[in-house]
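Quick question: who can interpret this fold?

. . .
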Amino acid sequence: MQFNVAQLLKESTGATRRYELTESIDGLDEELKFLGPLVGIVQLLRTNSGVLVTGELSSVVQVTCNRCLEPIAAAVRFNLEESFRPLTEVYTGR
């Protein structure tokens, strides 16, 4: 998934965008089978050097039970925090 942050980068520090996600993530990892979509909320915050992305996401994956060795569904939840810096200046394109 990709987010166009050009308009956000033109705004002042502290500006935010919030997105609710329900994304299919098939083919993300050959060894991990997702049984449901990636669901959650992602917030993009304009910082003085770029964009800070935070989020709370969840999905369901298939794992092997340690006791019976049968496949089972397991809910997974995680928090995301990642900082991105633009490769070019938005106003000049340099």
The chain has one helix and five strands. The two ends are 25 Å apart (CA to CA). The CA atoms of residues 27 and 73 lie 18 Å apart. The helical segments are 6-10.
